[in-house]
Specification:
This protein is of the alpha/beta class. The protein is about 15% helix and about 30% strand. It has helices at about 45-55, 105-120; strands at about 5-10, 15-20, 35-40, 60-65, 70, 75, 80, 95-100, 125-130. Strands 1-3-4-8-9 form a five-stranded parallel sheet, with helices on one face. A two-stranded parallel sheet has the order 2-7. The chain has a two-stranded antiparallel sheet with strand order 5-6. InterPro entries: F-box_SCFL_complex_component.
Length: about 130
């Protein structure tokens, strides 16, 4: 890792940042064990989430906070881009905690499908809680 980071909490995105094929914006976090991200990383194609997971090979706990979307000039905050390779492995991952606020049930459904079908996360590794 270029950075001695072992924990990232609530990484936030700018209003809308388009990255194209370049995910060099995200360094490799070899020591990262715990990662907490807000809703922006679970935008429609899961681009930012995939890039973080591809660059966090030793991640043990992933926390996703599905809160109300953030808007800037009436645009939802998100990092979007194209990925030639959507695959990743998180062999060390033990738990995915999802905290879902009211009104984000559809986002939760899509995220569950992505995690279970595309990422190989097992149902027993997932914990979902709901907030008002």
């Amino acid at each position: 890792s270029r950075f001695g980071v072992d924990r990232v909490e609530r990484a936030r995105a700018p209003p809308e940042l388009e990255m194209g094929n370049n995910h060099g914006w995200c360094p490799t976090f070899s020591n990262l064990k715990n990662l907490t991200l807000d809703s922006w990383c679970v935008h429609a194609d899961f681009y930012a989430l995939i890039v973080f997971l591809q660059n966090s090979p030793n991640l043990k706990k992933l926390t996703l906070k599905l809160n109300e979307p953030r808007y800037h000039n009436e645009v939802v905050s998100a990092v979007i881009g194209e990925l030639e390779d959507r695959s990743f492995t998180c062999e060390q991952l033990e738990i995915v905690e999802i905290i879902c606020s009211k009104g984000n049930e559809l986002l939760l459904l899509g995220l569950n499908q992505f995690l279970l079908e595309e990422s190989g996360i097992r149902p027993d590794q997932m914990r979902v809680s709901h907030q008002n």
